[in-house]
Amino acid sequence: MIPKSDDRAEVYKILNPQIEMLISDETDLVANQANIVAAIRQAFGFFWVGFYWVKENELVLGPFQGPIACTRIAFHRGVCGHAYTTRQSVLVPDVEQFPGHIACSSASKSEVVIPIFNRERTKVVGVLDVDSDRLNDFSEIDLIGLEAIIKLLEKKL
Ligand code: SME
């Protein structure tokens, strides 16, 4: 049950344990990713929420919710590539101001990307990409909330 609230910190606080429960008994990684992106999109109404995974030396589209997206992203390209190479979360208030941003849709205005680490935390194995159709839609609260959700998934990798 996701509350209708404009207070995102409050929504993440309630969403996080629900996602934990949702994925706790399931070992299939695709099933868990599918439910995670559905839960995030349902909670906040973001334009696009999805995973990219490191495969064959690039980032390849995984489970997502939203319009059709680019299937492959080179490691050095776009916001996703930036999160991959810097190994840090990236918050982009205005995608048009981000050099090299890959516009899968012109409706996407701001974006946040969270790197996903392997168990040993030695390498980035994928990223979570969240796009909004509103400018400047993300803050530190989203970074903290989404990173916490990704930590739940990393435990299952
Ligand atoms: N905008 C991303 C590409 C992925 S789509 O937005 C779903 C980027 O610049 O990496």
Word description of this protein:
The chain has a 6-stranded antiparallel beta sheet, with helices on both faces. A hairpin with a 2-residue loop joins strand 1 and strand 2 (58-65). It is built from 4 helices and 6 strands. It has one domain: Beta-Lactamase, CATH 3.30.450.40. Helix 1 (8-24) runs antiparallel to helix 2 and helix 1 (8-24) runs parallel beside helix 4. It has 157 residues and is of the alpha+beta class. The mean pLDDT is 95. The radius of gyration is 14 Å and the shape is globular. Methionine sulfoxide is lined by residues 48, 69-70, 73, 78-80, 101-102, 104, 108, 111, 129, 131.
Summarize the structure.
This protein is of the alpha+beta class and 157 residues long.
How is the CATH topology named? Beta-Lactamase
N-to-C SSE series?
HHEEEHEEEH
Q: Radius of gyration, rounded?
A: 14 Å
Largest sheet: 6 strands, antiparallel
CATH architectural group = 2-Layer Sandwich
DSSP summary, beta strand count = 6
Helix content: 25-40%
**What is the CATH superfamily label?**
GAF domain
Q: In angstroms, what separates the terminal alpha carbons?
A: 26 Å
Number of helices: 4
Order of the strands making up the biggest sheet: 3-2-1-6-5-4
- Tally of distinct domains: 1
Stretches with pLDDT under 50, minimum 5 residues? none
Beta-strand residue percentage: 15-25%
Oligomer designation:
single chain
CATH class category name: Alpha Beta
Structural class: alpha+beta
Mean pLDDT: 95
Tell me the overall shape: globular
Question: What small molecules does the structure contain?
Answer: methionine sulfoxide
